[in-house]
Amino acid sequence: MLPALRLLVGLLIAALVIAALYFGRELLIPLALALLLGFLLDPAVSRLKRWGLPRLAGTLGVVAITLCALAGMGAYLGNQVSDLSAGLPTYQSTISAKLRNLRQLTTGPSVWDGARKTYDTVEKEIDSPPGARAGARVQKVEVQPVELKPLAQFTAWLGKISEPVIMAGIVLLFLVLVLLDRDDLRDRLLRLMGGNLHLATDALNEASERIGRYLRMQFIVNLSYGVPMAAGLWFIGVPGAILWGVVAAIMRFVPYVGPLVSAVFPLALAFAVDPGWNMFLGTLALILVLELISNNVVEPWLYGASTGLSTLSIILAATFWTALWGPVGLILSTPLTVCLLVLGRYLPALRFMEVLLGNSPVLGAPQRLYQRLLAGDVEEAIELCTDGVDAALPAKPTPGQVAEAVGRLYDEILIPTLRMASSHHTGSATAGHRLRLSHGMGELLGEMAEQYPPPLPETAASRRGRVHCIGARWEVDALAAQAMAHALGLDGLAATHSPHALSARMEALEDSDWAGVDLLCLSVFTPQPQTQVRQICRRLRRRWPQLRIVLALWNAPAALLAEDGFAPLGVQAVTTSMRELRLRVGALLAPQPAGGHPLAPMGEEDEARVAALHASGWLDATRTDALHDAVVQAANAFHVPFAQVSLVDADWVHTPGSLLASASGPSVGRPGLPRELSVCAYVVSEAADLQVEDIARDPRFADNPLLQAAALRFYAGVPLRDRQGQVLGSFCIMDTAPRSLSVEELDLLHDMARRLQNTLSHRTEVSPPPGAGPTAQPPAQETGPLLGPAMA
């Protein structure tokens, strides 16, 4: 009863809001137009204020210039219309001749003549009055209009123009008030949206950014349409070409209807002017070509995701606002709907607005894949996965890039889908659901292996050991094992998998021959796998004592992963993701380095990169203050204890201004650490972002002594590039607890890195430090404990 009552109250509130919008349109339409114009003119007013002009003077100046521009354009267009009106009588003969030709074409004999005559006869019989004689004449009555006196004519004319003039005056008044009291209006809107200033500020900023970007892009799109239209009509010879180009640009502000209306005028004029059909056909071809280019090239390129609205929601919004407010509602439909979308994104009570109006997927990729498999739509499921991999690959990908893209897809989509399937196995899922899921997932994995084949097994086996993947008990375990074997095969390993999982009695163990297997990867989706894993591992150890086991616990709680209860069973590693599995297996089969931990890699063109670093001037001591300011800002913004700028040299990583103490290395007094132990060296060698959510679970860094000494558990770094695009170092943040960055936070880290790059490059070009060579090192600093925390 409560959900039904809540729905009824929501419908009642919606009806009241719609009624208020309809009956209050006399006041709301001018206010909405003023706010829309305020979005357009406020940047100019703010710019004048920054130049020192008072806001009142800037507002009046911008409004006056806008009114003068509109008046001038109106006068010019009126003059063009007057010239065209004076010349229209000369085209009457051409129009009459063309209409006679068209009438002859349409009145000729056709197969429908008999049906048309019969219909006309029946219609006359129906329309004739009862008792009328055949052939009787009907007397026509003509109503003569009453001729008004001059005063009455003036009053009628004034009544017609008073409404738009009053509307324009109210809009102008609201516009001036909005531009003058922008800050006060914003504060009042923040207060109305609730006490959470963070959400309210983000909502207003996003609405302003989306609407402003939409209006700017709309202006550019309309200009890119109107200018070629005017030029093309002038070349064709249509009179008033500039007038029709301006009309076409203005009418495109009206969604859907505007382009059709603007096309009628030049087509009609081309029909009237040219005795032949060349001008008309040329004008029609010009309009069609411009529409195709604008709709399919210019608009997708410029708009992108500027509004965030779906195509269906834009059409529905245009219909809704037109029904409420008429033609003005059609013009305002997109900005008003954007406001509703933003409110739905930030206000929980209006969350359904984002679902109904937005163009972003309402289901995550795992949910979409799960639904497609439940529905038996295997083709769409395959397309979803292959499109995701292809979108992450360049035009000519390397085998390593393919392996990384497929592994990321398995981590982000396929494993979460199997996790949902395991949680719904005995709940809402029926036997048909489970059958369609297993059958579709098997086809999907087979298609993935065909489209992204691993290297030849014999080639891989000659370089690395043999790996076998198997599921622990359920079918989802076996499906995940098949994905594991594919991902490991793409890494160059001789990886195989068993098509079926181990049963509860584990008869398969007695029939298997795993004497040549170097690593056995066991896939487990059970939330509490301790008993099951212990039983399987003991049986394995009794028959194959030399077998090394890697557990893939996809559903285990974090507390179980922190324990070391699987070590006595001969388990070499416990992984929770496909990426961690690939790294762990690769580390177990690779030759162990002398120091016990992997060394940071070097790029193929590292010598040229190091030379660019020394020539950049970024290593000069005068840069330390700017670098220190940047890392302090990053630490405060991301709420982390440590941030760092790392400039990667040939064998040393310089960290001037870092919030971590220096490492005492071969060159005493240099702040930094050896390159072979640096995480930032991975960012430089791969020229890509690096985010390590938990350092203790990453085999590349888990045994790094410097990271262990500093107790670091999280790292996120982005490349620092010079003006030629050469990666000279990284800008990173670090924490002592595992965490992850959202897409917005990673974009912010990139933005801070770009600002730092611009600062360093600008200082290098404008004011190079006198007497300081390009390889000048920072002055000697007192070093603390090995990478120990030292807050600046």
Describe the protein's architecture and organization.
The structure is a single chain. The strands form two sheets. The protein has a six-stranded antiparallel β-sheet with strand order 8-7-6-11-10-9, with helices on both faces. Residues 662-668 and 766-792 have low confidence and may be disordered. Helix 8 runs antiparallel to helix 9. Among the domains are: 21-81 and 165-192, no CATH class; 365-589, 3-Layer(aba) Sandwich (Rossmann fold), CATH 3.40.50.280; 606-766, Beta-Lactamase, CATH 3.30.450. With 792 residues, it is α/β, with parallel strands linked by helices. The chain has helices at 2-23, 25-50, 55-87, 92-106, 113-127, 150-180, 182-192, 197-236, 241-251, 257-273, 278-303, 311-325, 327-346, 351-357, 365-374, 378-391, 399-423, 431-451, 457-463, 475-490, 507-511, 530-543, 558-562, 578-589, 606-616, 624-638, 680-686, 705-710, 743-766, and strands at residues 466-471, 494-497, 519-524, 548-553, 571-575, 642-648, 652-654, 672-674, 690-692, 714-721, 727-735. Strand 3 (519-524), helix 22 (530-543) and strand 4 form a beta-alpha-beta unit. Helices cover 61% and strands 8% of the residues. The chain crosses the membrane at residues 57-78, 161-180, 219-247, 253-273, 280-298. Residues 622-767 form the GAF domain. InterPro entries: AI-2E-like (IPR002549), GAF (IPR003018), GAF-like_dom_sf (IPR029016).
